[in-house]
Amino acid sequence: MSKIDVVRAAMVEAMKAKDKARKDSLSMLLSALKNAEIDKREPLTEEEADAVVKKEIKQTRETYELAPADRDDIRAEAEARLAVYKDFAPEDMSGEQIAQVIKEVLSELGIEKPAPSDKGKIMKVLMPKVKGKADGKVVNQVLAELLK
Predict the structure, then answer these.
(1) Mean of the per-residue pLDDT values for the chain?
(2) Structural domains present in the chain
(3) Residue in 25, 24, 26 with CA at minimum distance from that of residue 6
């Protein structure tokens, strides 16, 4: 069952339960998934669907953060949407898992004592391995800690 089918089924459940906020959030997510599929002109793979969900989460977080302080309605709507989207998002790697992948990359590159000047080489090999599984900011922070 594709991510689109799962989201559509959840949306039908929300409609039956008369949960308008959840239905609206799922409708927006379903629309984003369908648009990505239309742009690609073929069904989305699991990784591509997960990337669309992560993109929606990121955009909703930005909406929440950029909302003026006096607009509690926008913030509440963004929070509710984030809670719904997280049900469909893939689980991110933990800091320990990212550190393990970094150690594998270091041994692959033959770097025993990484220096800050090696960061570019490391990231070039590391990012394709964690793409879609970890947030780039977290990966950067874990790598920065290891380079100290």
Answers:
(1) 89
(2) 1-85 (1.10.1510.10), 93-145 (1.10.10.410)
(3) 26
- Taking the mean position of all CA atoms in its chain, how far away is CA 36? 15
CA–CA gap between residue 109 and residue 52 (Å, rounded): 31
What's residue 17's pLDDT? 96
| 101, 130 Cβ separation under 8 angstroms | yes
Residue 67 to residues 56, 77, 84, 85, Cα–Cα distance (Å): 16, 11, 19, 19
Buried b / exposed e across 24-51, counting CB within 10 Å, b at 16+? bbbebbbebbeebbeeeeeebeeeebbb
pLDDT digits (tens, 9 = 90+) for 107-137: 888 888 877 888 888 888 888 888 778 888 8
Amino acid present at 86: K
Place of tokens 């369908």: 34
